[in-house]
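hey can u run this one w/ zinc ion bound, need the structure tokens asap thx
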Amino acid sequence: MAAGAGEILQLIRSGRATTRTQVLEATGLSRVTVAQRMDALVAAGIVRAAGSAGATGGRRSERFVFDPADSLVLVAALELGEPVPDAAAQRGPQARPSDAASDSAPLRGSQAHSSDAAELAVVDPHGALLARMPLAVDVAAGPGVVVPQLLDAFDELLADAGIKPAAVGGVALSVPGPVDPQDHRLSDPPVMPGWGAWPVVEAVRERFDVPVHLENDADAMAYGEFTELGAGRGNRPQPFVLVKVSGYLGAGLVIDGNTYRGTDGGAGDVGHVDVGGDAICRCGRRGCLAAEAGGAALLRRLAEAGSDVGSLAELRALAERGDPLVTAELDRAAGLIGRVLAVVVGVLNPADLVVAGELAVPTMIAGIRAGVYAGAQPRATARLRIRPAVLGPDAVLIGLARVAVDDRFSAEAVDARLG
Ligand SMILES: [Zn+2]
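ok here u go:
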């Protein structure tokens, strides 16, 4: 393997080789070349020496770590508020908390039109959230309104945290819709009218002259949970699937250590698989999994059954107390989700299936497990781990930051920078 400095950085970042001797063994390069390339990474402020790796000490066993200086990432996760059934809507705005409103921090911005929310953060290259800010937005107002709001909030966030804009090495945004991996624009978003093909990335670049990334939210969440900080622990080669069960349903896939987006960004869009029901989906079709088994569908079905559960937080609390009606509805939903995921498991043979989102309660996870086991071949599930996510809503922010850091420090980008 003829490894440039960029390839050596990948070895150090992944922990596969962190000393000069280990890099020499992994690459087959000469001792002099390894030393030159690692010195270049240190001089560029991308890696630094972090003490001796072994008892022998000395220069050759000195351990190196990835620790770039000026590479904070600004991230914003845009989330649709949960629609509420009529019964709950009549009880007024206090009865409709969104994911962000359940956070104790006050929401900034207008709450008059919608309960949609954005979560903004400054993230360091290791995934630590240095500062964050919730923001109320109205996705239906369109990108011409929402994107400038996000940019103003980024300025405010940096100023509040005392961070100079020059320390920002990338910006990454997530949206609740498919993003075309070729042109990095929203690709016919079924639930974001007016956003299709709008130049979000270009608009952000006019304010922040750094690489800008636009990602689907379930993809970003999957990537965050896939990292060594999340449930996947950075388990590189094996396929990793995350399903988010919240107001809506979506899945993200990580294959060979990379987010798998599909031809036009639609990979993992399990929420709109037809499961044969009657409910009309937000996408306009009938019988979608999301319309039968998503959180909004559960609230609607509970209202029809005479229950006055008004939010996912209430639903979750009732599930934890073992409420029979809520448990029965969660079981039904989990069975449907499990049946669809059994197909995903059959196709991808993943090592991990992680359940995330506000409704990733034990009843839901147990029901999904039962549905997957019932619907998939025993061989496909023999080594499959089905388990809850560990990062909560932070997974999206961490995943977004990781996308930007991976791009900034890819082997090609680093070799180009070091010339
Ligand atoms: Zn649908």
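The chain has a mean pLDDT of 88. anyway lmk if its weird
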